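Revision sheet: structure tokens.
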Amino acid sequence: MTRDRAPLVSWSRWPSFLPVAVLLVAVIVDVLTPLPSVFPLLAAVPVLAAPVYSLSGTITIGVVALLIGTALGYTEEHATLAEYFVRFTSIVVLTVLAAILNRVMAKDRKQLKDTREVAEAVQQAVLPASPGRVGPLGVASRYRAAAKEAAIGGDLYAIHPTPDSVRMMIADVRGKGLGAVRTVNRLLGAFYEAAAHVPGLTDVVDRLEELMQRVNAEEEEGPESFATAILIDVPNDGSAIYMVNLGHPAPLLIHQGRASPLEPTAPSLPLGLGNLGRTRVPVDRYTLPHDATLVLFTDGLVEARDRHGTFYDPVPFLSRPLPTDPGVILDALLADLTRYTEGRLDDDAALMAVTRPPDVSGGTRQNSLPHP
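Predicted:
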């Protein structure tokens, strides 16, 4: 399983230019206007630099502001020595305070970075590494941690071969933290147990729903827990996809330069909410052509936004010539997501891709599992 990390703090570019811009404005204002002093602008420069520059950069820009202030002071005819001393001392003091602020913020960022790395390590231990090939399918998975969150998320994916098919699940548990991790662990265990022993996808859903109902019963005083999920069965001949969608974003089928969402024929409630009136879940069947790739993802992908607040849509990017390697497809998709969001991801995103390679033929054993 590959981990792709977004930057811990993703500043847009303009704040890093702001201290220099203020310096230039101070010089221009002093030269072109009759204002008696531009000291307030110069004094603000090291403070503006503290959040966005390194320690040495903050001190350097403060010294530059001091030198410029000294040089500009010589052009003032009526300034007293006391005024020069106050200006000089003020910039020095503000530069020192900016350096201290810079160190405090750097320490906080490091602590958040360390916490996030621990969270990712726990997440990596929870989620199994996806093999490159399972049965007739090429498989890849990726996990992108949110830039602004250090809490462990509830995103999960799993894949399990059976004698007749390959079964997969991708899900997103409500909430974050240790409670979400416990639910993720229990869901993974229940999925692997059910995938190996129960005959159909609807039976697997029933097992997972029973588990989520137990989780809710154990946490009666807390908020109700639920998980959106997609469960998939691919027969060993690789020709079809049997899918149950429980309130999850529709996966995309990529074939011949076109990405098509596989929407469910009827909506179904997420796991854990079946007591609100869910009937027997429908199992949809889709054709899986040769060289086609199915991309599954959690809502962290499609709820990512650009600087204008527009949601990311993976369909245009995936509707172009792409290699059939599932890992390459996911890496390219995440690179496009990073470009679109400028590295700012507000929620974790888990992705899984499965490809039917061209060497899969219909001569392998057909799926014997019952599918409605």
